[in-house]
Design brief:
By secondary structure, the chain is an all-alpha fold. A hairpin with a 2-residue loop joins strand 1 and strand 2. The model has no long low-confidence stretch (mean pLDDT about 90).
Length: about 300
Amino acid sequence: MDLHSELQIIGARIDAALDRRLPPEHTFPQRLHRAMRYAVLDGGKRIRPALMYATARALDVPWDAIDGVAAAVELVHDYSLIHDDLPAMDDDALRRGRPTCHRAFDEATAILAGDAIQALAFYVLAHDTTISADPATRLRLIEILGQAAGSRGMAGGQAMDLASVGKSLTLAEMEDMHIHKTGLLIRSTVLMAAHLQPGLGETERDRLDHFAKCIGLAFQIQDDILDVEGHTDTLGKPQGSDQAQGKPTYPSIVGMEESKARALALHDEALRSLEFLDERADLLRALASYIVSRPK
């Protein structure tokens, strides 16, 4: 499998889906809509949509039925990046190789853009006609994403992250924080795609959820490794920013060697969870390997 080509296809597809669902720049209020489009349509790895499309392929769910759901998840992710970059949060100047939204516009516009992007995500799930799901399934999709984004998920994880600055955490505390901050949204992508296959059994859905749980944690470990070993030009954001802010990371707790070993162990566990699937899940398997070896 040529993963690079697959990611290019998915990237172009999700960018088109996002472009269609975002308000045009010329629509009033224009500055807000420009900021929304600036923050969302700026490239990025698109890992979450890629995991959703890969899960859909593994389960024979047509990609045309996934576009709106994938767009909703990516919108939630992009709103979180805008808010994470604010001076009151991580105070970052670069995101995906460009000035962060509050630097390109202003703090107030960035906050409003993040708010509007998050609201748009749930509007898409509620109204998008490309989502071929009955009302109960559509409501379940909203529930999954809402929990992943809220205080018991991403927002709660960010609060835990901010509270950890300058403190020492145990490995269990670190993993709990990242399961909330990063892991639950990644898990939601796989779970939401699984719920669009009505013939899938609960056992199989649980195995996919375990795959996503493992790979979500591995993703964050690799992020922490890259904060030490990566380069700003490759990362598209300042290298070493977590260390500079006094944030606990996997390498700071268990060392670099053990961090890499933990990421690989999670990768292997994730792949074992996919053993019930045939070669149609090869894209999911390739993404799992990419997540623990990516350079940015």
